[in-house]
Each structure stands twice: as C-alpha cells, then as structure tokens.
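Q: Got one fold?
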Amino acid sequence: MRVVIKNFLPRMLPQCFYDLVIQIAIIRPGPIQGNMLHPYIKRRQGKEKVEFPSNPLKKILDKNLGIPLFQEQAMQIAIISSGFSAEESDRLRRALATFKNNGDVSIFHKRFIDGIIANGYEKKYSEICFSQIESFSKYGFTESHAASFALIVYASAWIKFHYPAIFKCALLNSQPMGFYSVNQIITDAKNQGVKLSPVCINNSLWDNTIEHDKTNNLVLRISFDKSKVYQNQL
C-alpha cells in the first residue's frame, strides 16, 4: 500500500489540504477495487471529462470530480438516485461498515438497481454506481476519518521537515510501530542531516532524547533501549 501511495503522489500533486483528504481516502482497498483511482486521476489531469448523471448527484460528487470516495456519499447516492428510505440507507451503512469480502451489501443490489432505473437513470450507470458502492465494504473511509488522518499527515510532515531530529526521536521512542524498522529510521535521519550521538552511560536515558551541541544545534541522543540495534547504524 505504501508503494501505491508513493506512486500516486506525483500524479496527484496535492495543492491544498483537501487534496490530502482525497489522497488518504482513495488509496484504500474499497476505492482501488471499485476502479476509482484511474478515473479520478484522469479527470484531475483533464484527460477525462467530468460528467454527472443529474444535478442532485452533482451536488454530492462535484468536489470529488464525480467519483464517490466516502461512505456517506454512497448513502446519499442511494437516497437521491434509488429512493432509499432513511432506514434502508442506515442498513446500507451498517453493511458497508462490516469490511467483509463477502458482506451483506449484495442484498441491496436489486433494490438499488430497480430504484435507480425507476428514477430515470441508465442501467449501465446503475451497475457501475452499485459496484462502486459495494466496494466500500472492502474498506473505505468516511470523509471525517480521512480529514482527521490528513491533519495528522500534514502535521507530521511539517514537524519532519522543520524539526527532523525531534520527529525521528519521537518516532524511535514509539517503536515498534510495524511500518519502518529502526535501521530505516536511523538511516533516514542521517540522510536528512540529523546529528546523532551514541549511547552514553552518563547522558543516555532509556528513551531517546534531544540534546544541544556546542553550536546549539539539535542532536539525537541514542537511548539504552535497543542500543545495540542503534549502535550498528552510527
């Protein structure tokens, strides 16, 4: 998944905070399996025309270039285009939240297709639309979740850029996290120009700490915790 995100960023070229929200939401199993990545990026790059089957749906999907990326959009589409009741849409929400490969979303297929056709939409669009909605059962985000995640990403990136020593220190003290190994974090810190001091009986603590050198620059002091692992990288 990290590889997909890294490859998508140069094509996405985020320009504002909401672009990060979309970036977080779209690189998920649901949108990926629902074939939403390529249509979205083509529309963003102006290679594919953005079209909406109706004005009510345009209000729901306009900010996402016509691509449903959030669970609540799936519910709104079901209400607006297929005439789902509030109770039916809530049942759909619960089905989407199961994140099962063989969840209960399929039981809504006939109801959704019949409703959307009855409201004047084309059958081809109805099948594509339901397929996209169904993909959310394979893990998709709500907009608020994606926005919260994006805020963490933005804040982390800001700290990493402006205060790399402090960022790496906090990251090392949070291990194990299951993403990057200690060796990778240390190597990345050195590549960013972070100064590192080896474990010291007088100055090291159990956790990694931040010190100042003689010129008042920040230095990452290696801790006693897993010091053998760190020491090999210094």
